[in-house]
Amino acid sequence: MKSSLEIFDLDTGESTVLLQTDRLIEAPNWSVNGRFLVVNGDGRLFRVDLAAPELSEIDTGFATKCNNDHGISPDGSMLVISDQTEGDSCIYTLPIGGGEPRQVTEQTPSYWHGWSPDGRTLAMCAQRDGSYGIVTIPVDGGEETRLTDAQGHADGPDYSPDGEWIWFNSSRGGTMQLWRAHPDGSGLEQMTDDDRVNWFPHPSPTGDTVLYVAYENGVEGHPRDKDVELRLMDLSDRSIRTLLPIFGGQGSINVPCWHPGGRRFAFVRYARP
Fold it and tell me: What is the annotated signal peptide range for this record (predicted)?
């Protein structure tokens, strides 16, 4: 076993294995109807039905170098992918069942991470003017809006369910911590300040908690095959608890992974070498 696709239940505090494979798979998204997950592996996307879990390839047309930054539209009709087939990572959309991708971003590299609740805007991590920051763009393409300046590296943007906030991780304060800002870039606020290296915040569909991955102090970037913790912030008092220590990191929860009910989420853990 190389990859273990699992589901964590907040009510029981337990994790259940859905699928194990010798392939490297990453970044589970949960479908809007709650019936299947989408993961990537070997440059392709796969559907995993909860009722009969196996890797079923999704047709992504010419895009055969999909990375682990992909997701599902709020209405469940579309997929968004970040693909490197034609060079640096570029963002495309396509039908949920598969089909030919339609290009969204003209500038590269661009890595998708969040879809606004109204379905109109995509949030991404993008390298512009020599630094990686948080950028938004209309889902049909067009003018980009940069939310963060060039201070440090910013990554992993994801919208709150009410659309009022974009959460992300940034090293602008010196170490990689969680931050949030309104979609117009106002109200910038640091949300964690500890000795961990914190990445990929995902607000729950209920809006009361935020899931993220915490690396050990001193880790640079967001590598795979590390001892990490999946942590949950309670927004009522900003308290943080560790849900599960895993061997993972890159690929475990890079993208939105919550069940639509907000009490379960999907993740990938990896076998130790």
Answer: none
